[in-house]
Write a structure and sequence with these properties.
Layout lengths: L1 H12 L4 H8 L3 H10 L19 H12 L9 H10 L6 H26 L19
Length: 139
């Protein structure tokens, strides 16, 4: 995004020719022309669709991770133990792939929990004289 704004600034504000912009950025002149003509803020790329050996076992691993997250810390199975269980049912991938998936799943759960907690809080705001609060404690 920063590169596109620099290209626009050089060309539109500073009046720099496309050839000079291409030389400074290392992009081709056609690419610079395309960025200037499209008025695109940030270039978009199609999502990468590379199959993983874990794709077939993703639902199983997700359910295992969810179940393990509900157990007490001392009773949880480690990711290595989950990996061994996946190998028993036919998984041929690496432990690193399973560990990366587990890290991403935990991060996603943490983020979901954090945003859910934010949505629950409702601040109470009252106009002066609209509501009263009493403290009935004995000090």
């Amino acid at each position: 995004m920063a590169l596109l704004s620099i290209i626009r600034r050089w060309h539109l504000r500073d009046g720099m020719p496309i050839r000079e912009i291409a030389r400074r950025t290392g992009l081709s002149r056609n690419t610079v022309r395309k960025y200037l003509a499209n008025q695109v803020i940030e270039p978009t790329y199609p999502p990468r669709a590379s199959p993983s050996k874990l794709d077939d076992y993703e639902a199983t691993l997700t359910s295992w991770l969810f179940r393990e997250s509900r157990r007490h810390r001392k009773q949880r199975r480690t990711v290595k133990q989950l990996y061994r269980d996946l190998v028993i049912i036919g998984f041929t991938g690496s432990y690193d792939r399973v560990a990366a998936f587990a890290r991403a799943w935990r991060q996603e759960q943490h983020e979901a929990q954090r945003t859910a907690a934010k949505q629950v809080y409702v601040p109470l705001q009252f106009s002066p004289g609209e509501a009263f609060q009493f403290d009935w404690s004995e000090d």
